[in-house]
Hints:
- With 605 residues, the chain is of the alpha/beta class.
- It has 16 helices and 29 strands.
- Among the domains are: 169 residues, Galactose-binding domain-like (Jelly Rolls, Sandwich), CATH 2.60.120.260; 80 residues, no CATH class; 83 residues, Golgi alpha-mannosidase II (Immunoglobulin-like).
- Helix 9 packs parallel to helix 10 and helix 14 runs parallel beside helix 15.
- The radius of gyration is 24 Å and the shape is globular.
Amino acid sequence: MTGMKESIIAFAGSLLLFCAGCSGCGDSSRRLENDWTFRIDSLNQGLSEQWYLSEHSDSEWETVSLLPSNARHNVVEWRGVAWYRTTFEAEPTDGPRTLVFHGSDNSAVVWLNGERVGGVNGYSEWFAVGVTPSMRAGLNTLVVRVDNPRGYSGIYGPVSLTAGGTVDEVLKNPLSERAARAGAGWVPDAVVYGVFPRAFSREGTFRSLEQRLPEIKSLGATVLWLLPIHPIGDANRRGSLGNPYAVRDYDAINPEYGTLEDFRSLVRSAHGLGLRVVIDLVVNHAAWDSRLMFEHPDWFLHDESGAIVSPSVEWSDVAALDLRHHELRKDIIRMAEYWVGEVGVDGFRCHAAERVPTEFWELLRAQLEKIKPVMLISDGSLPDHHLKAFDVTEGGTMYRVFEALTEGLASPEMFHEAIRLESLKYPQGSLHLRYETRHDYRGSNSPAAARFGIKPAKLLSVLVYAMPGIPLIYNGDEAGNTARLGLFDRSSIDWTDRQGFRVLLKDLGRMRSEYDAFVRGTYRPLGNSEPSRVLSFARVGDHQVAVVVANLSADPVTVRVYREEVGAKDWRELNTAGDGRMGVNGEYTLLGWGWKIFIGTRTPT
């Protein structure tokens, strides 16, 4: 994909940090907040009818306002495809011009004056596109198409036009010059195994999960993460069994899963196998019939009429908590200290973490560290989460990249670019959770093997382990499960594993534990002779270099990888069920969606 560095610039990020977090923002930036129009493209006909052209009439479009805060615009929530349009005046200039979008709930494509200038692949992203060649002195027409399958609000604003800096200069976050917090020594080496107890086994209990902990350990997992373990609310319940994120009592155990002693036994057995245990912490909202609702209704968010509200239209089964109340904060910290200090869990995966003030998370971390070192995972992508509060963030950018690659919508350069741009945004040493399936992302309804296909899903597993970050195995990935695992009703995993996923994940787990380059090595793109369909990169450690070669197409390919770009010798192939044969001078033949991984030795400079 040509012009990738100027045309596809994507970050998972914080709208609220935008003006403070971009070194290129300032007096040279002006916001395009007014005179936007909006149209839902229910028949997906906008592209064929060229809605992006300046001369296209928007008389049938409705007026919409992009709000200058972390909020949604004034159009009802929708699903599918929608378009946004505005016009603005620009002064003549010889310098670079950049359009910066403070947020897009899903993937977007941008046109300026009828010319496609870039876009974003990701969820809840802020992004920028260079528009200098397409900009006109005088009137300009800006059009954005958003693919919105999740039912959120597409573009949320505002949108800014900046002058005087390149895209990288505009987007570079000052926090990227700082170091991420140093967590416990076991955190960077982690492989997380995510469990939804209701779907994991026929019984759906802690005891049945405890019996299979050795299987999980054998995959190379080091951290067991459980979705919420607390009782589920009945009021406004979604589905037949309810949403586990609609918590009724934070101090109790969901009787569907067992008793508190059952959970304590699970934690003890996991620790005996060397597994840490992390549970979901849900403090942005609670069930409408939660204990907190009856005891402290004033701790919830109220609208102007005094009515308690949900965090969003989609989350109608929960009521929004108001973390401005210090007594609520104290109660949450007390509860978290109980699970860590009394029950023995080793940390939390913090749900909807971006909706909670970062300074609260920092306070929680400080209090928990008085008990023991813990692992905190942010269900979000804010850069400042890495400074004092969290060990890991889990934005969805790379999942969107995986989608684009497997669907033939992008070149391998997009993969390199997404990782490079993380270095512009996040503090140095930041860790991110990498996954191909997750419970509340698109994977919850379409596991990787179903969403991408068997061969692409296996290749994505390789990339999850080989790229920088913390791998996540979501229950069923190791069996190549294709069954839909919904959150609100009974579902089950097909554990048959006819496709060899379990062997692959064991090999990948062994690879990660034996070769430190996959954990702490720097990422370096490698050139190859087939750059349009072959992804190649190195992880460069102090004494090892790992090289990954991946065919991102269904057709066989013979490719030469320029591994001489990294100084190493004594290359040997790792057995991770990859296909193809090694030739001379770094030339390989890969089958469709095939890969090869090599390890070489190097002398540090």
